[in-house]
């Protein structure tokens, strides 16, 4: 499966939601990440053909997305369904567009303990999310577009969904927008980072955050990021917490050597970054390096 995004823009009156975006998406799991208002949901709606672009074009296997020759399963952040439906009756509606792997669907529903004959009104928000993800994963659609689909899932459910998505990712193009950086990192092979509707970074999972290092050190409380910059370090994030200074920089052994020489800290060690820190640091670096014009 090949999705080509060519110079794509979407305006809502004076508001620019997506601007000049160009990328290519193939089979596998692509994580769409960025701050609130970065254009993630708009991009997914454009990919689904729910809305039309202001400029640019989307091609799916060479055909314009509006021709809808390729089935797309779009799961929005707030999916609409009549809660008087059961999952069985809802599946009948979707069956007009897709076939389903009945064995996989039954396995997912059993794992979640969902009775497909119950009305959706009897499901909690998390259960409805489990049900819709089960339908998406078991569908024949070669493209899955998931907008904050992991919101409200407990850790066990999230782990199961991750495993199921990885099992079908070799023959489906899956684009998942998520604020859950840990979940995205654990399943995605590729990251598209959006900032104010523009593409700030397109990176394989192994490369995302690979050139960033987090340190903790005993340094003067008067120390500022500018002081570190003067030593040749490119500071991405910086903060004092009590007597400890935490900072994330682009990897630079010579700059760290100059820091040791200048301040002779009693403590200076690299420490692992949390996934959300990696996301925040990559976004800050994207803006700092001017990959995106403010």
How much is the average pLDDT?
91
- Report the major sheet: 6 strands, mixed
- The total domain count is 2
Quickly give the CATH architecture of the largest domain. 3-Layer(aba) Sandwich
Number of helices: 9
H/E element order: EEEHEEEHHHEHEHEEEHEEHEH
The coarse overall form would be globular
Distance between the termini: 34 Å
Class computed from helices, strands and strand pairing? alpha/beta
Number of strands: 14
Helix coverage percent: 25-40%
Would you state the CATH class of the largest domain?
Answer: Alpha Beta
- Adjacency order of strands in the biggest sheet: 6-7-8-3-9-10
Put the structure in a nutshell.
The chain has 294 residues and is of the alpha/beta class.
Task: Tell me what the structure shows.
32% of the residues lie in helices and 31% in strands. It has 294 residues and is an alpha/beta fold. The strands form three sheets. Strands 6-7-8-3-9-10 form a six-stranded mixed sheet, sandwiched between helices. Strands 2-1-4-5 form a four-stranded antiparallel sheet, with helices on one face. It has a four-stranded antiparallel sheet with strand order 12-13-11-14. Strand 12 and strand 13 (244-250) form a beta hairpin. Helix 3 runs antiparallel to helix 4 and helix 4 (125-138) runs parallel beside helix 5. The radius of gyration is 22 Å and the shape is globular.
Summary keywords:
single chain; Alpha-Beta Plaits; 9 helices; alpha/beta; four-stranded antiparallel sheet; 2 domains; globular; Rossmann fold; six-stranded mixed sheet; 294 residues; 14 strands
């Amino acid at each position: 499966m090949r999705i080509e995004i060519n110079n794509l823009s979407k305006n809502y009156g004076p508001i620019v939601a997506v601007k000049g975006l160009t990328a290519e998406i193939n089979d596998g799991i692509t994580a769409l990440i960025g701050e609130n208002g970065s254009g993630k949901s708009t991009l997914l709606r454009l990919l689904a053909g729910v809305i039309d672009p202001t400029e640019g074009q989307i091609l799916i296997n060479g055909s314009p997305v509006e021709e809808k020759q390729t089935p797309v399963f779009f799961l929005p952040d707030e999916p609409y369904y009549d809660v008087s439906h059961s999952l069985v009756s809802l599946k009948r509606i979707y069956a007009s567009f897709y076939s389903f792997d009945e064995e996989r669907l039954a396995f997912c529903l059993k794992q979640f303990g969902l009775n497909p004959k119950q009305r959706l009104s009897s499901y909690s928000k998390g259960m409805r999310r489990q049900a819709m993800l089960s339908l998406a994963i078991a569908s024949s659609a070669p493209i899955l577009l998931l907008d904050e689909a992991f919101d409200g899932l407990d850790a066990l459910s999230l782990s199961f969904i991750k495993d199921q998505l990885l099992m079908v990712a070799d023959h489906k193009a899956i684009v998942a927008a998520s604020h859950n950086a840990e979940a995205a990192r654990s399943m995605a092979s590729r990251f598209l980072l959006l900032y104010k509707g523009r593409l700030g970074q397109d990176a394989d999972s192994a490369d995302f955050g690979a050139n960033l290092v987090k340190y903790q050190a005993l340094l003067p409380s008067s120390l500022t990021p500018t002081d570190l910059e003067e030593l040749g370090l490119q500071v991405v994030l910086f903060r004092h917490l009590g007597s400890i200074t935490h900072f994330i920089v682009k990897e630079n052994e010579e700059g760290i050597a100059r820091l040791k020489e200048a301040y002779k800290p009693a403590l200076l060690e690299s420490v692992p970054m949390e996934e959300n820190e990696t996301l925040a640091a990559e976004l800050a670096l994207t803006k700092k390096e001017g990959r995106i014009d403010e």
